[in-house]
Write a structure and sequence with these properties.
Radius of gyration: 19 Å
Number of helices: 12
Distance between the termini: 33 Å
Low-confidence stretches: none
Strand content: 15-25%
Shape: globular
Structural class: alpha/beta
Number of strands: 9
Length: 304
């Protein structure tokens, strides 16, 4: 678990791992130079449970933190976890059981429940299950084909392909999974085993433009590495990350679809607090929502 300024969520995240039905594990936590209260919280938790191995040092970014954790890990299987998500109690046990029964599988994810910043449910995205489906989606630049914080991987397989690569920081998961797919099989368990939190400080919101550029480079390299023909110019489905008023309106819509009136009202109120202050901002908000809807339809078409 790499941690950087996650004080609002990290205790709940760590405790969700400590509460797993599978109890025999080591939780390697890399405090990647946090400047908030994350370090203090983690030190308290580490004092409570000897299964936590806490490393605190200067910031290197997520790739450096992940590779350091891989170097420290001793188990044959390594599971990823983010500091703002919540693992469901049977996550580790179900994944270990599957990997024990499928020795050709090198990386295993699961379905997820997307939650809002307060932890209330938003949606359950459909998830590819088979290696062929997952690999095709990865080649289309869809990193969520195997959601990174759900992944359990064979450590030796990850080490043999060179671990995470610094040049693809912020799309390190897409790059890793495409290379692992050339080493063995990928899979997702169909049941939800993780609550994935959306919030405005997440990497996919703050660095969406960088991610789009790097995804294209990762996919091009994978095509070349595999000797696959590709159309030129190669284009990936557009990614749109909502912020502010537009994101709260989107969350409110999903809450209404689930029949959660109180949650929808809360996000509607937050949307009003961040409402456009002039006609130009209003146009930008409408355009963002329209672009997001178009991107979702295009992604659905490509993945189908």
């Amino acid at each position: 678990m790499p941690v950087f300024n996650a004080a609002a969520y990290v205790e709940e995240s760590v405790r969700s791992i400590l509460a797993q039905t599978l109890c025999d594990f080591e939780l390697i936590v890399i405090d990647d130079g946090s400047t908030d209260e994350s370090g203090t919280i983690l030190e308290r938790l580490a004092a409570e449970d000897s299964r936590i191995r806490l490393i605190r040092r200067a910031n290197t970014g997520i790739v450096g933190a992940l590779n350091e954790a891989l170097s420290l890990a001793q188990a044959d299987l390594v599971a990823r976890m983010d500091a703002d998500d919540i693992a469901w109690p049977q996550r580790l046990q179900k994944q270990v059981d599957y990997l024990d029964a499928h020795p050709d599988c090198v990386a295993l994810g699961s379905a997820i429940l997307v939650i809002d910043p307060q932890g209330d449910p938003i949606k359950e995205p459909s998830q590819a299950i088979t290696h062929e489906e997952i690999d095709a989606q990865l080649l289309a630049g869809y990193g969520w084909a195997l959601v990174h914080p759900t992944a359990m991987m064979r450590r030796q397989a990850v080490l043999s392909i060179g671990k995470y690569r610094t040049q693809y920081n912020k799309v390190e998961d897409l790059d890793l999974f495409l290379r692992l797919a050339e080493h063995g099989r990928l899979a997702n368990l169909p049941e939800v085993l993780l609550s994935f939190r959306q919030h405005f400080a997440s990497t996919c919101v703050q660095h969406s433009d960088v991610q789009t550029r790097l995804k294209l480079a990762v996919v091009k390299e994978a095509y070349q590495r595999r000797g696959l023909p590709r159309k030129e110019p190669l284009q990936l489905p557009k990614e749109v990350r909502l912020t502010g008023c537009a994101q709260h309106l989107s969350w409110a819509m999903f809450a209404l679809r689930r029949g959660r009136a109180a949650q929808a009202l809360r996000h509607a109120r937050n949307a009003l607090h961040t409402a456009p202050r002039n006609s130009r901002e209003a146009i930008d908000t409408v355009r963002a929502l329209s672009d997001a809807a178009s991107a979702m339809l295009e992604r659905y078409r490509v993945l189908r």
